[in-house]
Design goal:
With 608 residues, the protein is of the alpha/beta class. It has 20 helices and 27 strands. The chain has an 8-stranded antiparallel beta sheet. Bound molecules: fructose -6-phosphate (F6R).
Length: 608
């Protein structure tokens, strides 16, 4: 999603803004721009495409000025061209925006009625136009004009504005999309997240819903929705410590896939008492023995992690689980039960649909927990309970290590739920904890298949379509495998429950179609292998992912196989995830696509 940076600096800020924008590249974008105030004069450079194009525009015509804003745009209204790129300006003000303004069409008509001329197709441009309208027609100052404009906007957004003639003023607003203030020495920063601010300062204050910040180099004041002056806590952000480099890998995605043994171990350390082989949850966590039901919700990959955990909660804790995609759950009239709990899963902690579903469940009396990677995020701050996942910053747009850390945290929570509800005994808890503690080692072993998987991926890269199938916990992993492949290689892929094949998708099978069969040797292994034979009998190309014994038991005629370590079958998704991630990664690198920033995708989806 769009990235925002604003700086009240002590030297020319355009180069600093471009550096900050680089750290926001991971969010996904398709154009970028910078505006500065120099000796009271407003000027800007914008360019479609990657930041290199903006840099070239700045090299050709540098921008001076110690006050500036910058933006990476992920197009929602209007094509990703220069005219639609931010900052949007009038002669009086320049504005960057993240989010969606729902009532922009009616505001645009109203402003055009006053004779104001728009130069872009974006919803964002109504903001500088409205501010200018108030500056000129009501003769108010910049802060008041900004406040009046924001009050007219409906939707979910964050804004930062700078003003002609005002070299020591930057104003920002948060409603629905995050915005953070960074305090420097005689400098002030605004940014979409703490990663953007990390090169400049680790002293970060997050705006809350409806807040407006008025910043100068010397300090800032925050006003809530009712215009009252408020104070918000300053935190010391850990983002500055995060090494945002590729560590010798070609892509962030490869680095993040290879980090999994370490980050899974970190996540385990937050939940497991290794000496006693038990799970320990924070004091304030759910009392699972009293929960009437559990709702789980998330989007995309995080949703598939939730779906796998449904099998764990049901099997170990005998707890009824309602699970849905957040964009659906938020609008369903769910008959929530009294004493119910709800878990929302999110890497970024800023996904708009997940946050909205969380708020709805909270309003309906559910106790809210979040499995979240960014501890300062909106979802973390609005949850009653935080279940951390220690994945570290995930920069590649396709989620990999966050997925396995989400699974790790959810597995530990589900084991604790089973113990609290008396549905597993301490021997079973110890057995499962031992199996969980083995996962970093197994994931490291799974990574050793990278070379073999790359060779197979070179063939997958020629396919037009790919099917993934699995049963039980391997069914959501099949969905995740298909998502991973399609998002980074642009090959059409579908995941199916293996038992569902003959209800329709089997019609697709021919000698061109690779079918990836995820089958750890569990209670459903034989059934999945029968489904695989049905594929093979119709000329389909079966690629089996299983352990050595599983591959041997599957018999002859496989097109290919990927050998996974032998693991506790119900925990297999954490380890088998590596194979589907590497398969997608090498298929994409073979095709030469932009692995870390696939087309049309954003890392943090802060619009509905
Ligand atoms: C896919 C992917 C997305 C995210 C989804 C939720 O690789 O990364 O499907 O999982 O957008 O994002 P978070 O976890 O940040 O809420």
């Amino acid at each position: 999603m769009c990235g925002i940076i604003g700086i009240l600096g002590t030297t020319d800020v355009a180069p600093l803004i471009v550096d900050g924008l680089k750290r926001l590249e991971y969010r996904g974008y398709d154009s970028a721009g910078v505006a500065t105030i120099d000796h009271g004069r407003l000027d800007r450079r914008r360019a479609p495409g990657k930041l290199g194009n903006l840099q070239a525009a700045l090299d050709a015509r540098p921008l001076a000025g110690r006050t500036g804003i910058g933006h990476t745009r992920w197009a929602t209204h209007g094509a990703p061209n220069e005219a639609n790129a931010h900052p949007h300006s009038t002669p009086r003000v320049s504005v960057v925006h993240n989010g969606i303004i729902e009532n922009f069409a009616e505001l645009k008509r109203e402003l055009e009625g006053y004779g104001r001329r728009f130069e872009s197709e974006t919803d964002a441009e109504v903001c500088p136009q409205l501010i200018t309208h108030y500056l000129e027609s009501e003769n108010v100052g910049p802060v008041e004009a900004f406040r009046k404009a924001i009050a007219r906007l409906k939707g979910a957004f964050a804004f930062v504005a700078i003003f002609t003639g005002e070299d020591n003023l930057m104003v920002g607003a948060r409603k629905g999309s995050p915005l953070a203030i960074g305090r420097g020495e005689g400098e002030m920063f605004l940014g979409s997240d703490s990663y953007a601010l990390a090169p400049f300062t680790n002293r970060v204050t997050y705006l809350e819903e409806g807040d407006i910040v008025v910043a100068t180099r010397e300090g800032f004041e925050i006003f809530n929705e009712r215009g009252e002056k408020v104070s918000r806590p300053e935190m010391i952000s850990s983002a500055a410590d995060a090494l945002v480099d590729k560590d010798g890998h070609r892509h962030f995605m490869a680095k993040e896939i290879h980090e999994q043994p370490e980050v899974i171990a970190h996540t385990l350390s937050r939940y497991i008492d290794a000496a006693n082989e038990t799970v320990r949850l924070a004091e304030n966590a759910f009392d699972f023995s009293r929960l009437s039901s559990l709702t789980i919700s998330a989007c995309g990959t995080a949703y598939y992690a939730g779906l796998i955990s449904k099998y764990w909660f049901e099997s170990w804790a005998r707890l009824p689980v309602e699970i849905d995609i957040a964009s659906e759950l938020r609008y369903r009239s769910v008959p929530y039960k009294d004493q119910g709990g709800a878990i929302f899963v999110s890497q970024s902690g800023e996904t708009a649909d997940t946050l909205a579903a969380l708020r709805e469940a909270k309003a309906r009396g559910q106790k809210i927990a979040a499995v979240v990677n960014v501890p300062e995020s909106s979802i973390a701050r609005e949850a009653d309970i935080i279940f951390p996942m220690a994945a570290g910053p995930e920069i590649g747009v396709a989620s990999t290590k966050a997925f396995t850390c989400q699974l790790t945290a959810l597995a530990a929570i589900a084991i604790a739920a089973g113990r609290q509800r008396g549905t597993i005994d301490d021997m079973e808890e110890r057995r499962l904890v031992r199996a969980l503690l083995e996962t970093p080692r197994h994931v490291a072993e799974a990574l050793r298949q990278a070379g073999a998987i790359e060779a197979i991926a070179n063939d997958i890269a020629k396919a037009r379509d790919v099917l993934y199938i699995g049963r039980g916990v391997s069914f959501p992993l099949a969905l995740e495998g298909a998502l991973k492949l399609k998002e980074i290689s642009y090959i059409h892929a579908e995941g199916y429950a293996a038992g569902e094949l003959k209800h329709g998708p089997i019609a697709l099978i021919d000698e061109e179609l690779p079918v990836i069969v995820i089958a750890p040797p569990d209670a459903l292994f034989e059934k999945t292998i029968s489904n695989m034979h049905e594929v093979m009998a119709r000329g389909g190309k079966a690629l089996l992912i299983s352990d050595r014994a599983g591959i041997a038991a599957a018999g002859d005629g496989l097109w290919a196989s990927i050998e996974a370590p032998t693991v506790e079958p119900i925990l297999a998704p954490i380890v088998y995830a590596v194979a589907i991630q590497l398969l997608a990664y090498y298929t994409a690198t073979n095709k030469g696509t932009d692995v870390d920033q696939p087309r049309n995708l954003a890392k943090s989806v802060t619009v509905e």
